[in-house]
Specification:
Blueprint (H helix, E strand, L loop, with lengths): L1 E5 L12 E6 L5 E7 L2 H7 L7 H9 L2 E6 L3 H15 L6 E2 L7 E5 L7 E4 L7 E4 L5 H14 L14 H4 L13 H15 L3 H17 L3 H19 L2 E2 L6 E10 L2 E10 L2 E11 L6 H13 L8 E3 L6 H12 L4 E3 L4 H21 L6 H10 L7 E10 L2 E11 L2 E2 L5 E4 L8 H15 L6 E5 L2 H14 L6 E4 L6 E2 L5 E2 L6 H28 L1 H4 L6 H11 L2 H6 L2 H5 L5 H16 L1
Parallel strand pairs: 10-13, 13-14, 15-19, 19-20
Antiparallel strand pairs: 1-4, 2-3, 2-4, 5-12, 6-7, 6-8, 9-12, 10-11, 11-12, 15-16, 16-17, 16-18, 20-21, 21-22
């Protein structure tokens, strides 16, 4: 590859070869990445007289253009996708959520491979299944796979069997309870299962079952029988939508303003196994063909399995995409735009799902829950921007706070914030609440329409005091208690909202999200600080919590005697002696 920078863009200076061009503004920021079969011809097209208004705006912001020469147009296609993911250029079509999506990873280099969730795709000695739009869907798929195929899910091989072995979810290679060849066969079957080849697996399992029965190997027959039952149960829950043995991905597209949503229906051997939605950032003037072409590359570039047919509503450069996908999958794969029949019906279903999802991404009307909330809380306007605060600590130790943001009734994780309590010592939740609210408003100009704090009257008053220190105008603040789901005001009034009201459901969702975010940070901080206790054999999370709840910190625990440690319920003499000796050794 050759990388060249041209500071005064002139099409004549670009080679007549395939590659990628990178447009930058005066600050050096990448604003657009494109691919071309001929760099010279593609760049020349930007400086023609009859260009699109969108292109004219882009050209006005270009200061320099870099280009990278590649060996083929397919190589340029993949490089373009990687550079878009790296730089997130303003004028490119790209996945709106720039976080790494979760995948299922199957390691292959080890003697006894493992299957684990991951967002890191750098290991080339592994295969990946995904991407999934959220971790919950990924975990569901992983659980289905490990229910049928007892492959280990631990990152490091343990020294002894765990509970999963007794639950028949792991074949325990750690204690040699399965031979290497048999285990690798199990892994390959699971890869086939995740690739959608469940009918093939079922047929093979039935053949194995009959063989074991004929050979009177009843223990092995029982294992295969249980695996067959689990597979049949998974297939039973999947709806048959197409009479075919092929695997398909069906794409639907909806776009509005600067956002597009692609819905993907996953059809495996005629059964719908799931649906995913992906939001993309677009620019005015981006065609449906451009959006679909760009998304297909971003969607398939990191995944191991690509189905037999890719069914789309439109496509731009079909030849290039098919060549690239076939080269990646090492087999024949077709990209189709159906004109009639069942496949067209499924594309329309995917489009309907994309339309429903984009209405959530770009709500043009105020949701009923926000209107209800305005009515119950007597607000001047519906609270489009809501911020919620929560505190998490154990008896004052490792105290942290969280702030979550909901825009138009939906989470906006880009505005979430965590706080480590700095000014408060000991157990004083109201003071901690005052600190994090004050710090938030001092560091941000964004003013919410409504503030929700976890707690009652004292937390509400603390939040008001913090806001009064920073802002000249008041913001409505309410406390939401966990126990009764009632709202508290500054003057002590209690507001009850009907349990069937969408307003209460929204408030509960906001409160629970703030609590989850705070707890997550608290655990990370505590686990990082208390990692010394993890080194003691037999001390898990529960015993660690008992110790910290009693002694408040590791420092105090180190000063305790064996007798003081032993008196904690759930510890006992054996663990007390073990903890005492370990901490004394660490001190010396």
């Amino acid at each position: 590859m050759v990388v060249i920078s041209i500071f005064q863009p002139d099409p004549i200076l670009f080679p007549d070869r395939p590659g990628v061009y990178i447009m930058k503004d005066k600050s050096g920021r990448v604003i657009y990445v494109g691919k071309a079969l001929s760099l010279k011809k593609r760049v020349r097209s930007y400086f023609a007289d009859n260009i699109h208004p969108k292109t004219r705006v882009l050209i006005s912001r270009i200061d320099t253009i870099d280009y990278i020469v590649t060996d083929s147009e397919q190589e340029a296609l993949l490089l373009e996708a990687n550079l878009i993911k790296l730089h997130l250029p303003r004028y490119n079509i790209r996945l709106k959520d720039d976080k790494k999506y979760p995948y299922i990873k199957v390691t292959l280099k080890e003697d006894f491979p493992t299957v684990i969730p991951t967002r890191d795709l750098r290991d080339k000695n592994a295969v990946y299944f995904g991407p999934y739009t959220n971790a919950k869907k990924m975990r569901q798929a992983l659980k289905s796979a490990t229910t049928v195929f007892s492959v280990r899910i631990c990152k490091k091989m343990p020294k002894r069997v765990c509970a999963l072995y007794y639950m028949k979810r792991c074949s325990a290679p750690c204690e040699g309870k399965i031979e290497k060849e048999e285990y690798r066969k199990l892994v390959q079957e699971m890869i086939d299962f995740l690739s959608g080849k469940s009918d093939k697996i079922e047929k093979n399992l039935k053949r194995e079952l009959e063989t074991y029965k004929d050979n009177l190997e009843f223990e092995k027959a029982i294992v295969i029988r249980d695996r067959l039952k689990a597979l049949e149960e998974i297939k039973r829950r999947q709806k048959i939508v197409l009479n075919t043995s092929k695997n398909l991905d069906i794409f639907g597209l909806a776009s509005r303003k600067r956002i597009a949503v692609v819905a993907v229906l996953k059809i495996r051997q005629g059964r719908m196994i799931g649906i995913e939605h992906y939001a993309l950032s677009t620019s005015r003037g981006d065609s449906d063909e451009e959006i679909v072409d760009t998304f297909l590359v971003q969607y398939y570039k990191d995944t191991f399995y690509i189905p037999d047919e890719v069914i789309v509503p439109v496509v731009g450069n079909k030849r290039l995409l098919e060549d690239w996908i076939r080269n990646k999958a090492k087999r024949r794969i077709e990209i189709k735009v159906p004109k009639k029949g069942k496949r067209l019906s499924l594309v329309r279903l995917a489009i309907k799902n994309a339309i429903l999802h984009i209405e959530e991404e770009t709500p043009e009307r105020i949701s009923f829950s926000l209107i209800e909330l305005q009515k119950y809380l007597h607000l001047e306007n519906p609270p489009r921007l809501i911020e919620a605060f929560d505190i998490s600590n154990i008896y004052g130790e490792y105290a942290v706070g969280s702030k979550v943001t909901f825009k138009n009734g939906r989470k906006d994780k880009s505005l979430y914030r965590r706080f480590r309590i700095k000014r408060v010592r000991g157990i004083d939740d109201p003071k901690m609440m005052e600190e994090i609210v004050e710090r938030k408003f001092r560091s941000s100009d964004r003013i919410p329409d409504l503030v929700i704090v976890d707690g009652g009257i004292t937390q509400v008053r603390s939040a008001y005091r913090a806001i009064d220190k920073v802002l000249e105008r008041p913001i409505p603040v309410f406390g939401l208690a966990k126990r009764f789901d009632e709202l508290y005001t500054r003057d002590g009034a209690v507001i009850s909202i009907s349990k069937s009201s969408p307003a209460l459901r929204l408030l509960q969702q906001i409160r629970n999200e703030a609590h989850r975010f705070a707890i997550e940070y608290h655990r990370k901080l505590r686990d990082r600080t208390e990692s010394i206790l993890d080194e003691i054999d037999g001390i898990g999370r529960k015993r660690k919590e008992l110790l910290l709840r009693h002694f408040s910190s590791v420092e105090r625990l180190q000063k305790a005697s064996i007798k003081e440690i032993e008196c904690i319920p759930g510890i006992g003499w054996v663990y007390a002696e073990k903890i005492y000796k370990f901490l004394k050794e660490v001190q010396t």
